[in-house]
């Protein structure tokens, strides 16, 4: 026989801390807590207005409370917050920031690679030599070089939101102006392409600064992989759609259409993004607590300890390795469609479509590498070991597959070698590209600007040198230089890099 005495006091305090068996009822927005053991139990219930009802239950057999319907982990995110159970259906804001950064870099590479396709009809129309084409391609890097360190300092001191927004808007305008400058003459085209480089030059340091504040260490490789996947997908979209637009509307249409997309992104960025979790008034408290407890870089930097930074061997390992990596990457970025057209005898449309495959491979393999790296971090593997393994794959993989290009006898095999080369190259996102936030999280923007300056120099010299080599040599000579630098980078990286923080 069961006797129940119902107590109905209302109070606003939290349930006792030694409550057991918390139960939730999502339909009536209330929480139940059962205390006591055996036949002597009482249950506390909180209504949606934060009031509580308590009843005691004395019975010969345990009183069974109806089970709540199962809750899908894919829809709800649960986290203990003190003594209360927090249930949320919101998408994490830090991943909104990551996706916005990824879309910015998608536009970045769309606007960059369209020239590698458009340059073919442009060179035919304006009668440019291979050397002139190389100078036009490299002029982008003149502006890109100027803003690497400046962009890093700017982002670390004033915040990444303003810097990245400025960069996207600036390079979008320059993209739209490219056809006009080409018709005015080479000097104007050089200047506009350099201006475009200025805008894209600040983007990477700004992104690195933002992610160092928004993303915990255990999610670092995956977040960077997703951002750089945006770059690779931008190359895919640019290379796939540029030939179609050129064939239907002429080569100027590529620059007009791609450049105009930047204004759409800029409007979203202004309304959704913040430089830091501390600046976001709508960020949920539990996510803010998670981010701030895991991220080191919280406040803007007041001054840059240049002497300390430049005295560290791992910093120089980053600089040298970035140079060696970007030499090969930028050559393939700017000259791959020309290689397909001249060596493999593809037409303009085929050159663009086949050039898509390596970048699509990079988008996939970068995320695979990021997932592997973050999984190893969570399992306790040394970050130093992880970064060295990933970057070694990013160096030796491309080196091996580029050496095979001189031995293949079919276009299909050549395209496969290119795809495998770029696919293994993408593991660098979990290697050197993640390392800036490892060794100097507070100065990650500056450090990326510093190392990427070396990478841009590789783009300037490598892109221009490729045009000169092709005029006096062959594609085999171009690939041999890249392979040699990949091997140098492997030695330097494994000898001097580290995954530990070396600068506070």
Automatic annotation (TrEMBL):
Places the protein is found: Membrane; Plastid, Chloroplast
Gene Ontology CC entries for this record: chloroplast; plastid membrane
Entry's Gene Ontology molecular function annotations: phosphate transmembrane transporter activity
Topology of the protein relative to the lipid bilayer: Multi-pass membrane protein
Record flagged with keyword Transit peptide: yes
CDD domains: MFS_SLC17A9_like
The Major facilitator superfamily (MFS) profile domain, residue ranges: 97-501
Keyword Transmembrane: yes
Domain of life: Eukaryota
Principal place of residence: membrane
Spans traversing the lipid bilayer: 95-115, 135-155, 162-182, 188-211, 223-245, 251-270, 315-336, 356-377, 446-470, 477-496
Keywords: Chloroplast, Membrane, Plastid, Transit peptide, Transmembrane, Transmembrane helix
Signal sequence interval, chain numbering: none
Pfam families: MFS_1
Listed InterPro entries: MFS, MFS_dom, MFS_Na/Anion_cotransporter, MFS_trans_sf, SLC17A9-like
The family this protein is said to belong to: Belongs to the major facilitator superfamily. Phosphate:H(+) symporter (TC 2.A.1.9) family.
Name under which the protein is recorded: Major facilitator superfamily (MFS) profile domain-containing protein
């Amino acid at each position: 026989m069961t006797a129940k005495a119902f107590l109905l006091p209302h109070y606003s305090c939290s349930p006792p801390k030694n409550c057991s068996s918390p139960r939730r009822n999502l339909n009536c927005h209330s929480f139940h807590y059962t205390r006591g053991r055996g036949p002597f139990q009482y249950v506390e219930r909180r209504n949606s207005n934060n009031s509580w009802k308590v009843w005691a239950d004395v019975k010969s057999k345990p009183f069974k409370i109806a089970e709540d319907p199962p809750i899908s982990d894919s829809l709800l995110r649960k986290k203990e917050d003190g003594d209360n159970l927090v249930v949320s259906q919101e998408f994490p804001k830090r991943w909104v920031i990551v996706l916005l950064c990824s879309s910015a870099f998608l536009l970045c590479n769309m606007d960059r690679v369209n020239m590698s396709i458009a340059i073919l009809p442009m060179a035919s129309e304006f009668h440019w030599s291979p050397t002139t084409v190389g100078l036009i391609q490299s002029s982008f890097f003149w502006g890109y070089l100027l803003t690497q360190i400046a962009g890093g300092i700017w982002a670390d001191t004033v915040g990444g939101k303003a810097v990245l927004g400025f960069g996207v808007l600036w390079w979008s305008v320059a993209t739209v102006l490219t056809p006009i400058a080409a018709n005015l003459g080479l000097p104007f085209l050089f200047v506009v392409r350099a201006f475009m480089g200025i805008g894209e030059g600040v983007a990477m340091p700004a992104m690195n600064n933002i992610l160092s504040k928004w993303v915990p260490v255990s999610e670092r490789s995956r977040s960077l992989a997703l951002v750089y996947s945006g770059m690779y997908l931008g190359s895919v979209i640019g290379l796939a759609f540029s030939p179609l637009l050129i064939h239907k509307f002429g080569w100027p249409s590529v620059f007009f259409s791609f450049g105009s997309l930047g204004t759409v992104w800029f409007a979203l960025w202004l309304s959704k993004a913040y430089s830091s979790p501390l600046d976001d008034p709508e960020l949920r408290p539990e996510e803010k607590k998670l981010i701030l407890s895991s991220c080191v870089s919280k406040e803007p930097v007041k001054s840059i300890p240049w002497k300390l930074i430049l005295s560290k061997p791992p910093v120089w390992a980053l600089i040298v390795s970035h140079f060696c990596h970007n030499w090969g990457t930028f050559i393939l970025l700017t000259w791959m469609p020309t290689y397909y057209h001249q060596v493999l005898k593809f037409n303009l449309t085929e050159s663009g479509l086949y050039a898509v495959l390596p970048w699509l491979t990079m988008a996939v393999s970068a995320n695979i590498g990021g997932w592997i790296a973050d999984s190893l971090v969570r399992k306790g593997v040394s970050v130093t070991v992880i970064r060295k393994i990933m970057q070694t794959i990013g160096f030796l993989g491309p080196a091996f597959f580029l050496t095979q290009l001189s031995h293949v006898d079919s276009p299909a095999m050549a395209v496969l070698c290119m795809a495998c080369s770029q696919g293994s190259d993408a593991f660098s996102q979990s290697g050197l590209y993640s390392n800036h936030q490892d060794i100097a999280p507070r100065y990650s923007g500056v450090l990326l600007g510093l190392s990427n300056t070396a990478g841009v120099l590789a783009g300037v010299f490598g892109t221009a040198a490729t045009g000169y080599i092709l005029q006096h040599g062959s594609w085999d000579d171009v690939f041999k230089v890249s392979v040699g630098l990949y091997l140098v980078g492997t030695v330097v990286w494994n000898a001097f890099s580290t995954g530990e923080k070396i600068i506070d």
